Amino acid sequence: MMPVIRLQHAVFDPVAECAKLELGDAGAVASFTGLVRGEGGLVALELEHYPAMTEEALKRIAADAAGRWALAGLTIVHRVGRMAPGERIVFVGAASRHRGDAINAMHFVIDWLKTDAPFWKREEFADGHSAWVEAREGDAVQREKWSDRTKKGCRGAAPLSGK
Amino acid sequence: MMPVIRLQHAVFDPVAECAKLELGDAGAVASFTGLVRGEGGLVALELEHYPAMTEEALKRIAADAAGRWALAGLTIVHRVGRMAPGERIVFVGAASRHRGDAINAMHFVIDWLKTDAPFWKREEFADGHSAWVEAREGDAVQREKWSDRTKKGCRGAAPLSGK
Amino acid sequence: MAIDLLYFAWIREAIGCDGETVDPPDNVTTAAELIDWLSARGDGYADAFADKGRIRVAIDQEFAGLEKPLAGAREVALFPPVTGG
Amino acid sequence: MAIDLLYFAWIREAIGCDGETVDPPDNVTTAAELIDWLSARGDGYADAFADKGRIRVAIDQEFAGLEKPLAGAREVALFPPVTGG
Q1: Residue D6 Cα, gap to closest chain A Cα (Å)
Q2: What is the pLDDT of residues A24-56, one digit of tens each?
């Protein structure tokens, strides 16, 4: 199983991503899509990243997931740059013979993406002000839960998000 | 939040289902799609159900999920009747402001669907024989995990699948 | 009192019909007793209900345990463990 | 030895550039010491690094703790806690 990892400015279509995962005849496909929320007068989200590192970080997270669960397919698509409310930011899809494996792998990847990939979000509002999104402590807590659940392939590094 | 529940013979398109969940501006959409696997010479899957009960069972599972997690949307589509390898059997999608809520609600619904909704699968093979799918003990075990995690809204009934 | 019975999956196949209306004697007060009474009706029934551990029940469209009193039930469904999703 | 520095998010904005090449003195042996040394260079740096608890580091494109020795590192990135996904 070779994970599909894409980092891109362009909008993407989760349909196409899911369709590829479904074609593998694994039987169970779980996916997560994160979108830009338009609340509080938000007009744009800017996603900055560390180009030399980002793809490697995503590959590592994908490899960790593949080491923990029996996967037939794993896809991560993450956008960078400027995006509008309602647009998709990130897609994680996992295929497996077992629904639990597909769902847990997807959940693991999105949790680790939040804490272990070099992305930073800046929000721009209608009144002209903008602000960098603060890391949420809950993300580090959520990420740590995975070290209790399965040992195999756990990297055990300190979370990069949170306080 | 009014769950969308559909029971149908016709094939369905998870794209359309996800699109509706994404439109809610909740930010996080998790989905699960179960498909007919074509392995072992399987040529068709027949899904029998208990028409007078099925929709009510799905509504109850959806209401339980909505009572446990903060959801902006919840969709269950389940097919009945005869279907071919590669076709989708079931779709569960959940939208929330919080990725954990969306993912856990989706996971809960598919686990409970496996044990608490009156569906029975029969597999037909290329050599002409057919067999009813046996309930897996693991499904009952998986379903029971949810009673440990959150108390709110737990029905606590005995699993209908498993031994 | 008359009860509408519904059979699903291999129980339906073993019995050879998807349902029937029956009027069991007064000493049939639970689903388990109903199953025993039905089993005496012939081979198909006996085959269908040979292993009570593999039978699940819904009384008036609510899942129930085998020992639950029928207590005036109008519709009783008998089926194997569910395998949907 | 020359080190390529990279700044991201509000650290980049506070300092006013997205990176530079520096040649810190020999007594700068860890990321934390590098941050202290940079902070003495002016207001933008001092602002960016005022709270070391909010700084994360990657050394040669590997995430690292602030106390990790630089030990011949070629590229050091300084950034706030990540907020992707």
Answers
A1: 9
A2: 889 999 999 999 999 999 999 999 999 999 999
Distance of residue D34 Cα from the nearest chain A Cα, in angstroms = 19
Question: Which residue of B lies nearest to A16 if distances are taken between CA atoms?
Answer: B15
Please indicate whether, in this complex, the C-beta atoms of C77 and B78 are within 8 angstroms of each other: no
Does B91 fall in a domain? yes
What is the tens place of the pLDDT at every residue in A11-20? Answer: 998 888 888 9
CATH of domain C3-79: 3.10.20.30
- Picking from A35, A36, A107, the nearest residue to B103 by CB comes out as A107
Residue A48 inside a domain? The answer is yes
CATH number at residue A117: 3.90.1170.40
Q: Can you give the residue range of the structural domain that contains A51?
A: 4-149
Which structure tokens are listed for B42?
Answer: 């399987």
Number of folded domains that form chain A: 1
Angle at D28 between CA D27 and CA D29, to 5 degrees: 100
Query: Token match 């599972």: residue?
Result: B61
Please indicate, yes or no, if residue A160 is contained in any of the structural domains: no
Read out DSSP for C6-28? EE-HHHHHHHTSSEEEE---TT-
State the complex-level ipTM.
Answer: 0.92
Q: Encoding tokens for residue A67? A: 């080491």
Q: Does any domain span residue B163?
A: no
Are B88 and A22 in contact (CB < 8 Å)? yes
